[in-house]
Predict the structure.
Amino acid sequence: MAGRTLAEKIIAKAAGQASVTAGEIVTCRVDLAMMHDSGGPRRVAPILERLGAKVWDTDRVVVVTDHYVPAVDAESARILDTTRKWVAANGVSNFHDMQGICHVVLQENGHLSPGMFVVGGDSHSPSGGAVGCFMFGVGATDMAGVLVTGETWIRVPGTIKINWTGELADGISAKDMMLAACARLGMGGGDYQVVEYAGDTISALPMPERLTLCNMAAELGAQTGIIAADEKTADYVRAAGGDPGDYASWQGDDDADYLAVHEFKATELTPQVAAPHSPANSSGVENHTGQNIHQAYIGACTGAKLEDLKMAARVLEGRTVASNVRLLIAPASTRTTAEAAADGTLATLTAAGAILMPSGCGACAGYGAGVLSENETCIASTARNFKGRMGPVNSNVYLASPYTVAAAAVAGHIADPRKYLAGDGE
Amino acid sequence: MTAQTSKGGRAWIFGDDVDTDVLAPGLYMKGSMEELAAHCLETVDPAFASGARAGDVVVAGSNFGIGSSREQAAQVLTILGIKAVVAKSFGGIFYRNALNFGLLAVVSSADVTVGPDDRVVVDGEAGKISNLTTGDSWDCEPVPPHLLEMISAGGLVPWLERRLAQTNPGKETGIK
Ligand code: SF4
């Protein structure tokens, strides 16, 4: 018998079976269910009411408000109010109200640990794979089923391996790695299978960067992304107040069957930019240099964690945002803001002229503050640049790393961040 | 109750890459489910929505239901009475949604050859697709019994409704 992939091992444990095979349909116990204000209580409550059912285990549910925070109008205020009232009425203790973006908040608070089987009511739920969980996104009907039964069925996915080897050059980040992967594999390349990232480049990445990789497995059309836990994972989970458990046992077997193995060389990677309107529309920054922009946005779960803000700060240190551009920065969580304030990162950003925004999804999904006007162009550290996502259908979004977004803000047009980093004394 | 076998219906034939926008066109998403269903697949087969009858079967190529996560893409097919969809492969989210809305979706790598007027039966339990008109049959991946039970109940929510009524009559509680 061939060995098992990491995903197969986690699914087998959740299904209470010795092993599972790709293609097989099994029912799994859910270790944790995560919902946010947009897709959560307001959508599942009517289904639970119809069923006259309550939450199966209030300790295994985490609710986060992030999409509509802070409220900008009566409708968003009502959505938040609905969320808060549902949480109180159902006795859900894990409620993170306005503390940041769900995928980041979940990991910061130690809710996830290696080997868990987790569902999330958001398409970027694969983010959880960064700590070695099998976590995938579900819709409202699926979520309601989980909330009532604590179970869900799954057709066991196969695993596609993405190997990254070598050292990343200065100024290159996880976002560049994912944009390059989107360009090569396309938005359907993940085929609703699992994308497992491996190789020495991945081992060297800090946890928040790993989150970015797993998060954007969604852009490859994968069911989820995952990275086998290592000591870094365990340290991170412990520091967040979680229990990494027997983390070293959650590894794929060497002789497991992979659907495909894609090799990427970190040493060859340059800053990547995705042109409108698809992350797969990516190529080296040199193809976009000089492109005019109106706004630069450093935000979202993929692009505004502490590491991301530090990347931006290295470019912005001692420089100022060009007069024809506005630079908006929405830290991914309130903890990120506090840490960036404590270590001086925020001061560097604001001294350069960045406009600091509340933590939340903000302009990323076009729900919050910072959206674009007709025909405006933005360069953003977010995960998606679909048509009309950040404003009117004729607005344009380029995707890039926080380094590249910051460089564009300084230059007033898309620019290579490496020339700003060369002399920063680090 | 068993409904793992569709009773045999007319086969509607489609090619590869039928996406969720073709199944549930964005233009009609704001209207009622019935209105949306009336436009289901109209850009590929204008006769489909008005011609489909209860028990009919869709036979398609690869990647059926690729695209967005909209649950309506599966729901409209059930509204039109489609009992089963046979495809070489499915969009992953569509596949989940289909079963959750009581639509039997089966994967078959075989070249299922059916004519437009052929009668087709899909047996999810046995993993068999039969062309009643020609007598041909093909294998498909079987669907486990508890999921067939969910499909026959009309999907996840009606199935839970039934399960809750049996487990905890009169009580408001989750199933432990
Ligand atoms: S920041 Fe953007 S990608 Fe992340 S959860 Fe919010 S809307 Fe989704």
